[in-house]
Design a protein that fits this description.
By secondary structure, this protein is of the alpha/beta class. It contains six helices and six strands; from the N terminus they run αβαβαβββαβαα. The protein has helices at residues 8-19, 74-80, 96-103, 145-153, 187-197, 201-223; strands spanning 57-62, 84-88, 107-112, 124-125, 135-142, 163-164. Strands 2-1-5-3-6-4 form a six-stranded parallel sheet, sandwiched between helices. Helix 2 links the parallel strand 1 and strand 2 (84-88). Pfam families: DTW.
Length: 229
């Protein structure tokens, strides 16, 4: 059996916890949660999770405390895509490992963001045209809508990268948070569309299945305050 790759979002979360001087208290913080999926233990979805066959790589650039939030779906992407990376966003002092990843010649990095909010329209692409001997690296700005807009506008180390624009064809199924606009999608939903666009059918299908299980279990646990039915 192939050894599962580690979940970079959970690794980042553990690192931030070890470095934090004060406890981060999210809503529902007192609930007894699985340490892997962060869902109430009675509704854990860890069993049966299967990584996909995927030639693309993903990178979650996470706003401040995003990795702590049980409702975050970036870690679902890292569960499914073997080549996954996660970093805490910093405007002026980006992680040296992030900069090394972006300049790694084996990767073809591109930022995932709507064209309507990209100041330089020449950066925008609408499909994935793979370069020879390079692996697509999809960079997701993981945070609220306002935080994601801040990240793309205030990250000079991303300015030279193309921006892959995805337009949602259906309203979001992401009911864990309330977005300012109905067409705005959760990170995992965007990733499903990106992977499908890139021809990564196995990854797109498995991520969609994992996301739906996560969404339903999360809402069930929240509704019942973590108690079994």
């Amino acid at each position: 059996m192939t050894k599962r790759s580690s979940n970079s979002v959970l690794t980042l979360r553990a690192q931030q916890i070890s470095e934090s001087r004060r406890e981060f208290n999210a809503r529902g913080g007192k609930m007894d949660r699985c340490e892997q999926c962060l869902i109430a233990k009675h509704y854990c979805i860890c069993d049966g999770v299967e990584q996909a066959e995927c030639d693309a790589a993903v990178c979650m650039l996470m706003y401040h405390n995003e990795s702590f939030k049980p409702s975050n779906t970036g870690r679902l992407i890292a569960e499914i895509v073997p080549d996954n990376h996660a970093f805490r966003w910093d405007r002026t002092e980006p992680d040296a490992k992030l900069l090394a990843l972006l300049s790694d010649p084996q990767y073809q990095p591109m930022v995932i963001f709507p064209a309507t909010d990209v100041e330089d329209a020449t950066r925008v692409i609408t499909d994935v045209q793979e370069q020879p001997n390079k692996r697509p690296l999809f960079i997701f700005l993981d945070g609220t809508w306002r935080e994601a807009k801040k990240m793309i506008r205030k990250s000079p180390y991303l300015d030279s990268l193309p921006v892959l624009s995805i337009t949602a064809e259906k309203l979001s199924d992401y009911r864990l948070r309330v977005a300012p606009h109905a067409h705005q999608l959760g990170t995992a939903e965007v990733a499903i569309m990106v992977l499908a666009l890139a021809g990564e059918a196995d990854a797109a299908t498995k991520l969609e299945q994992h996301f739906m299980k996560f969404r339903d279990a999360y809402l069930l646990g929240k509704r019942n305050k973590g108690r079994p039915l």
